Task: inverse folding
């Protein structure tokens, strides 16, 4: 089993100010087979992910570590996600940087993490340099991987794989996959035989937020009865898509 290592020189983030003041989703009962921390996903078929705007980044352009609030369809907070990465890589490597995404529950405990090693862009045709992410829940226990598939420069696809790196689902890049206009880019999630099973969609956040920040809003849907581990891996795919397609927008603008 591969174990993702924390980014060198970076400590895990703690809960932000006002953490407990949010309206959190009640902790559901979980079967013994469910990895600790993923029990929240058992009763969920949709998540809304909102990236928090960093004031320093907005005013100076100095890239800060990304932070996200993850909510259910009722507006209750399910997780808090915080990027752990090297400051120099954030400024110099942009979306290609190595990072760890730390997922915290309502007690501020890290229940899941995603590790993406340094990679070049999604259009790299070299097998060893294509976008790749490992997902662990709890940290230290790998539940799956996301990997860019093939050499598709315009419409790349991504494989959702289990802990043994066996393909389970495939994510397709739809029309307007780079979010270049006032639209909501969609990334259909399909079974290996082509049946639609879910969707990752970037939501238009308004002209000011889109032009002057790289803070993004996403929605993700999946079947209620989907393996809870694959739901967690799909969350990782959402963060990977954000970095690959939308993290560079502020610098370009």
Result:
């Amino acid at each position: 089993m591969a174990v993702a290592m924390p980014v060198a020189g970076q400590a895990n983030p703690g809960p932000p100010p006002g953490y407990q003041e949010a309206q959190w989703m009640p902790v559901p009962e979980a079967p013994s087979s469910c990895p600790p921390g993923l029990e929240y996903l058992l009763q969920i078929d949709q998540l809304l992910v909102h990236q928090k705007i960093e004031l320093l980044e907005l005013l100076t352009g100095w890239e800060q570590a990304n932070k996200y609030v993850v909510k259910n369809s009722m507006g209750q907070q399910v997780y808090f996600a915080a990027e752990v990465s090297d400051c120099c890589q954030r400024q110099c490597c942009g979306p290609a940087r190595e990072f760890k995404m730390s997922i915290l529950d309502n007690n501020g405990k890290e229940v899941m993490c995603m590790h993406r090693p340094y990679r070049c862009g999604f259009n790299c045709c070299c097998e060893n340099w294509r976008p790749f992410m490992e997902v662990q829940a709890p940290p230290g226990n790998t539940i799956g991987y996301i990997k860019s598939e093939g050499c598709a420069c315009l419409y790349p696809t991504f494989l959702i794989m289990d802990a043994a790196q066996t393909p389970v689902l495939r994510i397709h890049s739809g029309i307007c996959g780079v979010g270049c206009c006032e639209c909501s880019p969609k990334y259909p999630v399909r079974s290996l035989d082509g049946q639609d099973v879910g969707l990752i969609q970037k939501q238009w956040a308004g002209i000011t937020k889109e032009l002057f920040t790289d803070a993004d809003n996403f929605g993700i849907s999946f079947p209620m009865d989907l393996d809870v581990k694959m739901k967690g891996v799909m969350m990782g795919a959402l963060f990977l898509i954000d970095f690959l397609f939308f993290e560079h927008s502020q610098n370009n603008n």
Summary: The longest strand covers residues 77-84. Residues 175-179, 207-214, 249-253 have pLDDT under 50 and may be disordered. Helices lie at 55-60, 87-92, 207-212, 228-246, 249-252.
